[in-house]
Amino acid sequence: MNRKPKSPRLPKPKERDILNGCLAVLRLRGIFHFRQNVGGAEVQSGHFIRFGVKGCSDILGCLPDGRFLAIEVKRPGKKPTADQSDFLQSITNHGGLAIVVHSVDELIQELDNGRKNEGR
What is the largest CA-CA distance in the chain? Predict the structure, then answer.
């Protein structure tokens, strides 16, 4: 019985690898941006402290035309949480560019599309 060997599967990229690639693209394009961490931690006193806005995107910035930029980075096949979707919708409602990306190529495409829609 001859079995056909399975072709090796490439591992799905980790979110941090996609995020680092996105940060590099923004840096190369000269787009002002920063990494935004959201979460919480227990401090020495035993209190739990939250930081950041719930649902806030992974990367925030400002496009050259002055619009606010929010980028939520996800692994392929993953979707934003309800809080993340609400945050992105708020940015869109106020005239910003809010996007979910699963790859660096997707970010490049979204940025290029967003620039075509400047002033709309």
Answer: 66
- Tens of pLDDT, residues 15-37: 999 999 999 999 999 999 999 98
Structure-block tokens of residue 93: 């409602």
CA distance 83 to 110: 21
Question: Do residues 57 and 70 touch, judged by C-beta distance below 8 A?
Answer: yes
Instruction: Describe the strand order of the beta sheet including 59-62 as a list of residue ranges.
Output: 32-35, 59-62, 68-73, 97-101
What are the residue ranges in the chain where pLDDT is below 50?
119-120
Which helix (H) or strand (E) segment holds residue 48: the answer is strand 48-51
Q: Which domains does the chain have, with CATH numbers?
A: 15-116 (3.40.1350.10)
Q: How far is CA 47 from CA 32, 38, 52, 79, 99, in A?
A: 34, 17, 17, 31, 34
pLDDT at 70: 98
